[in-house]
């Protein structure tokens, strides 16, 4: 098998292989596809085709959502109602589904001009647009292009001031050229506009406007102004035009004027009383002049603000009659265009909307309503409303989840939108067969969490959660201003998210080492006291070597079970200017919190300062709704929180998980001077009272009921688990310690020996992954129990057994016992993902609880417990049963993957994923035909491995890692889907599923639809009688080769595409295009039949006339003799 470099479609090559080797080729269809060809060169041969199960050509498909990154230009088709946006990177985004201009409307094509002076003609009649022709200019730089409506001649202005004309159908240059020295002795044609059939208005950057007569090939008039020109626009009658200038003025000129502007307007300038010239303003970059039949014309412009408006946001100005409306925008304006009722420029345009392209948004303004409201945008252009910091992708979610999120999210919609429908409504959506629901969750820098409906190829926002509401807003006093200079820029940014789709439980971790647990409800509630749990998760090895006075007596450090912590004194928030990464302990709201329907706060967990050190950021997080547990870890250790009983079950340093079986020889770090935070926070190792030891830097500003707190002090030899009803004592051997792992830097190199010694390398171990499951906790167990598996940065997988009380009221009263159970496996590199399979290779999902309404009146707790999916397990396994390999543990690290049989804990499969790079993201995903391990490596490769055999299925060099944003947001999900943030404003979704790739063509929809072109305006009797006028045939003769000659060969290089314009029309795909062609053929057939009927009738009339004349001739000559003729 492999790439034979033999095209299997070639029958000669096929016959040789068949005759010589008697082999059967099992791959069907092309394996190499380009725009112009397709071949089948990747082949698999076998002499036993009967043993084949399935063969497919694995492909990757992509869909991009969001706002185009760094937009540069925009164009609109008024007939097809499609919008095109070009970007600085050369990408084109078409809505609804480079300088950009349309070819004749109805032809289904697009012309784009790029910064490298190349012009491309795109075919939009097919589902996947493709380039038909290209034209590369060699001698001159392109500055502007213009295409009149229903014209096949494209006008291109260059930096030298010349204007070239291109035939769009053949995409060749015409010999007709407007040279700069004939128009005016200045350079750089900046703006072109055609209104009259033989008049072209040319605006030059230096302030010169030329009215060029195309037929006579000379300049009729020249208009000069002192300021540079940025744009030119015609009045629809062709008797006036308007210019915008660099000093913030607008000049209106009559065609047959005396060389002076008819009117000069300074929209935002102060008019002096003494009649002097107004103060100069900022340049007006663009102006459009649109007329109405029954009212005053519209003048719409961007820029032109006064220089004294410092700090004012960018504005779009709409001047209509005596009223001037200034519309402020959130971002700088890139371009705008006006949508009109008619596409013809020589008729009353009747504008009804303005499309404004901003740097990071697209706004459509309704001109027909008072106040100029905006249209509600149906596209997902607000992904970057706040920078995306993390994201998760879920496929095949419960079917009732999207309607539930939409119902609560619909109440969050803004008011004040236009009542009209979105005007950019062209094309037809595809009808894909993909029916399972998909949800994307994005976390943002301002603390918001957004839920998106990603079913099929659409992306629509469902619900928006603002986590910052939990925190108290800072007041603008001097103390806060000093703090804001040294704290993180985004203290509420979301770092990690854990979500259970079945129970709808959500947990988010912020960059300030805080967790918020949410529960979904359809009813509004008011929470009097939001429950807060403070956790000290700090671990220092040198603290272990010198226990404080009192030895191992840790009882006095532990609060009394079931009692609230004593009220601490007020302390200020800690601030440390010397730290390079300052972590802020938030101040939480003091007033009752009104929570609307949707996600409501269940519990807040905050890591606090210890020994003058800020808490480390949370590196891993997991949630299990069936167990009611949250587990999180960082570079110091892990903590298990029971969010039902609101208590900490386990608080351990990473080294404590090993017990006495720690394989690493860890050495203590040299002691360092503890940093004291502001407010005099007491060191936890000082011999003070327990009340002082329980203080947090912000506890004095809290009105929460302080819940049960489990504190693990590194100086004691025993670990206490504090619960509501009892205290469970677990014996733990004294640790040898480990230094906390520093926060991972953003470099691509993950070498662990470049800057640290081997001793430090072994001492630094962080928690990198978690997995809840019901499996065998120890080697040789005969029964499964609820477990938590922990992965570390040194490649170790550790097991933690969970002893859960019975469901119902007992779950809220009895303690949950958590007990470390030893090491399962060791791999190279950090552990990234863990999963479990049964003995048949079927994926075993973690236990979950089905959703119920938590705020329902009289809700029966027993019914809630019945809905839980946790299977009953035995906590006392029988050792008399015969051990069998009934489960497989799948573990994937940065370097390798292993499959381990349970309960024997024997490694049965092992695969080295990469030696020269490392894995950034790994997931165990479920496909239609089985399960696999999907990996994304730092070298850009996407790989999949079969389960449980770990055989390579796919290895594609898809995306070179050039930005850490990709590594931070890349994630896989079930059914062969993946996504990542390809730019700060765009989400890229990819699929490596053959089934989805096959359906992608139909899911894309149709851009081109058969639409009748609006009727041209009536020119009037007298105008048609005396005005004359030219037709398209005249322009064909004028620019054609017969009269204009051939263009210079070296000026531009023509690069033909695989199809011509006529071939493009015949290559349109899809049902809509087929129906359009059928309708056109039917119309042509009917027309021909009508012509045939007319000819038949004419022939019949001619025959009757001939017969009548013949009869008259016969009667006339009947009685005559031959000599009378």
UniProtKB/TrEMBL annotation:
V-SNARE coiled-coil homology domain: residues covered: 1060-1120
Major localization listed first in the record, in broad terms: membrane
Region entry Disordered, spans: 543-584, 663-694, 857-880
PROSITE patterns per UniProt: V_SNARE, WD_REPEATS_2
Entry protein name: Syntaxin-binding protein 5-like
GO molecular function, one term: syntaxin binding
Family of this protein: Belongs to the WD repeat L(2)GL family.
Record organism: Oncorhynchus mykiss (Rainbow trout)
GO CC term, one of those recorded: SNARE complex
